[in-house]
Amino acid sequence: MKTLISNALVIPMTKEGYSLRTDIGIDGTHIAFVGKAEPSFHPDHIIDASSLLAMPALVNAHTHLSMGLMRNYKDDLPTLQEWLAEIFPIEDQLTERDILLASRLGIVESIQSGVTTIADMYFNQHSTAQAIIEGGIRASIGITLFGDLQQSKERVKKSEALLRSFRSHPESRIQFDYAPHAIYTCPKETYQYAHDLAKEHGALLHTHLSETRKEVEDSVQEFNATPLAYLKELGCLDDIRLLLAHCVHLCDEELEILKEVDATIVHNPSSNAKLSSGLAPVSKFLEHGLNVALGTDGASSNNNLNLFEEMHVASLIGRVYTPTNTKLSPYQVLGMATTNGAKALGLDHRIGRLEAGMEADILLVDLHKSHLTPLNDPFSALVYSAQASDVDTLFCQGRMLMQHRKVLSLSVEDVLHDANACWTDVLSRKRG
Question: Among the CATH numbers 3.50.50.60, 3.20.20.140, 3.20.20.70, 3.30.750.200, which is that of 58-344?
Answer without folding.
Answer: 3.20.20.140
